[in-house]
Amino acid sequence: MLSGRRLNILDPSPLDIEIGDIAHGLARVARWNGQTSGHHAYSVAQHSLLVEAIVGVMDPARSAGDRLAALLHDAPEYVVGDLISPFKAAIGEAYRTVEARLEAAIHLRFSVPADPSGKRTGLIKSADTVAAYLEATALAGFTPSEADAIFGAPRVDTAPLLGELAPCSTEEAQQRFLSRFAALDEAIRPA
């Protein structure tokens, strides 16, 4: 990693995870395998910001810890990249195990609260699906009917989120991700 940390992806230690490495990597990983419109690729960092914003629209009372979990929902991809869902399914359990270990280490590193009920995880998954629909129709060339058949039409007001769909430079995506992380991290730290 650029921070100088050396992360063992098969047995990740929270001590080897830095938010700067995550932001740097996610800003350079393209969603939709780069098959999006615009002068820049739409990055996983931007997608993460979108999912966190959707969680806020879906449930404005969510805690900063839950919002941080939403922002970091794809953080393991800073190491393993963004694989399309059918490919992840084909790889199977080995991929899910590596991803789960990375996610656990990331959550420990940044004090993301546990989710024993699974409700937060379900909300983030729903927000991720809304994001996929919006990205598909705004950036990846899907018609609304095609996206609806795959993802289902969003059941939330997406108008306030459309500004999050403009692909930006890696530098801007990285800075926006770091800024949002800092705000959420500060909000969850005890005074």
How would you sum up the global shape? globular
Average pLDDT score: 94
Q: Outline the biggest β-sheet.
A: none
Give the oligomeric state of the chains in this entry, treating copies of one chain as homo and distinct chains as hetero: single chain
Q: Could you say which structural class the secondary elements and strand pairing correspond to?
A: mainly alpha
Output the CATH class name: Mainly Alpha
Helical content class: 55-70%
Query: Would you give the CATH topology?
Result: Hypothetical protein af1432
What is the β-strand count? 0
Number of helices: 9
Helices and strands, in N-to-C order?
HHHHHHHHH
* Reported CATH architecture: Orthogonal Bundle
The total domain count is 1
The CATH H-level homologous superfamily: Hypothetical protein af1432
Q: What is the terminal separation in angstroms? A: 31 Å
Poorly predicted sequence stretches spanning 5 or more consecutive residues: none
Query: How much beta, percentage-wise?
Result: under 5%
Radius of gyration: 16 Å
Summarize the structure.
With 191 residues, the chain is mostly helical. The chain has nine helices and no strands.
Write the layout of secondary structure elements.
Blueprint: H1 19-28, H2 44-58, H3 64-71, H4 77-80, H5 85-91, H6 93-109, H7 119-138, H8 144-151, H9 170-188
Helix pairs in contact: 1-9, 2-3, 2-7, 2-9, 3-9, 7-8
How does this structure look, described?
- This protein is an all-alpha fold.
- The protein has a single domain (16-186), classed as Orthogonal Bundle (Hypothetical protein af1432).
- It has helices at 19-28, 44-58, 64-71, 77-80, 85-91, 93-109, 119-138, 144-151, 170-188.
